[in-house]
Design brief:
Blueprint lengths: L6 E6 L3 H11 L4 H4 L1 H5 L10 H15 L4 E8 L10 E10 L2 E10 L5 E10 L5
Antiparallel strand pairs: 1-3, 2-5, 3-4, 4-5
């Protein structure tokens, strides 16, 4: 991989309503995401984002930057929870290799800097923007 060609930074504050909508759309209605009473009794103490919800935010941004892109692969890690109402920072870095583009993304909680998602997405592109 070559040095990053550009970087993107944006913020998002996920809401409980987004968690609930994602649960309905995805069918993943695990109570850790949607049930405040259940979640209070867990080690997290409150509801947490679906990992794939976080990736949909990444993918939405990639689609804006690369409207003709096709995802070839994605690798995801979710080392810490993301909570409703807590601001997240998304840091994305691009590296071009031939016809493909690799995007490394770090999503972290602004409150304490903890990584909540580490993603690598390889795209086949038809050109940026």
């Amino acid at each position: 991989m070559t040095a990053p060609q550009f970087s993107i930074r944006f913020e998002h504050i996920p809401s409980q309503a987004e968690f609930e909508l994602f649960a309905r759309i995805s069918g993943d209605d695990n109570p850790i995401h949607v049930d405040a009473d259940f979640s209070r009794a867990t080690r997290f103490g409150r509801t947490v984002a679906h990992g794939m919800f976080l990736y949909t935010l990444i993918w939405a941004r990639l689609r804006r930057e690369y409207p003709a892109a096709r995802s070839l692969s994605q690798d995801l890690k979710f080392p810490n929870p993301a909570y409703a109402g807590e601001r997240l920072e998304f840091l994305m870095f691009e590296a071009v290799s031939g016809a493909n583009v690799t995007i490394e993304t770090l999503v972290r909680r602004m409150a304490d800097g903890a990584a909540v998602c580490e993603a690598r997405t390889i795209l086949e592109t038809g050109g940026r923007g």
